Amino acid sequence: MKRFLTLGECMVELAPAGDQLYHQGFAGDTFNTAYYARRLLPQDWTVGYCSAVGQDAVSDDMLDLMRGHGIDISGVRKVADRTLGLYMIQLINGERSFSYWRRQSAAKLLADDPDWLETQLDGASMAQFSGITLAILSPEGRNTLCAALARARANGTHVAFDTNLRPRLWEDEDTMRAGLRMGAEVSDTVLPSFDEEEGLFGDATPADTIARYRDCGASTIAVKDGAGTLTIWDKTEGTQEFQPVKIDSVIDTTAAGDSFGAGFLAGLAMERGIAASAHLAMAVAAQVVQARGALVDLDMTDIEGTQA
Ligand code: ADP
């Protein structure tokens, strides 16, 4: 059985449902990627989530939801005296504003047990993590996670890093820049977003972004740019540009990058090559931005059509 594993944090989400009412859901970038990868990969693949949660009812609810979506949760560790992180969305004059309660989140302990982590990664065909996964960890935790990923990579796991910048989660900008390099240095594939790289590193073009992560040792780099040109560099195929699907009305860009990553990595996992994987990724993300919420029910006939 081939195994696709994502590592990170999934939180409780409270989204406004009108008149001081909130709808409770669960959300997290790496979980979103696992959700879409499960839809896209054939059944001879296991899709697993690696994280830490509490020993309480809300953590159990989240695990039930993941299991219900076909995700293997045997890689989720239960920690006493901790629970899930939580965030609340509020609409202030139509703009979304976020408040977070995540300092005591169990997922911050994801890398506290190196032996356990190594066991989770053992034999994985593909392992995906993100800038958020790194940001929530302590400096020692980041070292432990990256060392475990580097070992897995040396043993044949394809490691993929979605840069996902969240400046508020990092100690400061220098630490965030160093953390991104650290993540890229243990990865085969890096999935940055051009606007974020432009802001943090002052990149003038996607070629600058590619040059930096290539110097970190990545062999495939897909630089996303929303509705703009997607630029992918690959060690054997060089640089290629792709145009995202044209969309008249974008409804909600939540999880655009996460679903793109799932599509691209699922394509690579199925050995479809760079161009077909890029088209799969763009087709998935196009559906996601045309629907509300992070976990969209994909129309697979449309996606298979894109593949033909
Ligand atoms: P991130 O969320 O990681 O910043 P992007 O916003 O660049 O990522 O979006 C990821 C992918 O989603 C893009 O490469 C593209 O394929 C798709 N996408 C996002 N916004 C749009 C849009 N307005 N029209 C078409 N495709 C889009």
List keywords for this structure.
UDP-N-acetylmuramoyl-L-alanine:D-glutamate ligase; kinase; PfkB_dom; 11 helices; Carboh/pur_kinase_PfkB_CS; 9-stranded mixed beta sheet; Ribokinase-like; transferase; globular
Polypeptide structure, described:
With 308 residues, the chain is α/β, with parallel strands linked by helices. The chain has a single domain (2-307), classed as 3-Layer(aba) Sandwich (UDP-N-acetylmuramoyl-L-alanine:D-glutamate ligase). Helix content is 40%, strand content 24%. The chain is built from eleven helices and 13 strands. The strands form two sheets. A nine-stranded mixed β-sheet has the order 5-4-1-8-9-10-11-12-13, with helices on both faces. The protein has a four-stranded mixed β-sheet with strand order 3-2-6-7. Helix 3 (114-121) packs parallel to helix 5 (139-154) and helix 9 (256-269) runs antiparallel to helix 10. It is globular, with a radius of gyration of 18 Å. Bound molecules: adenosine-5'-diphosphate. Adenosine-5'-diphosphate binds at residues 193, 224-227, 230, 244-245, 247, 250, 253, 256-257, 260, 282, 285-286, 289.
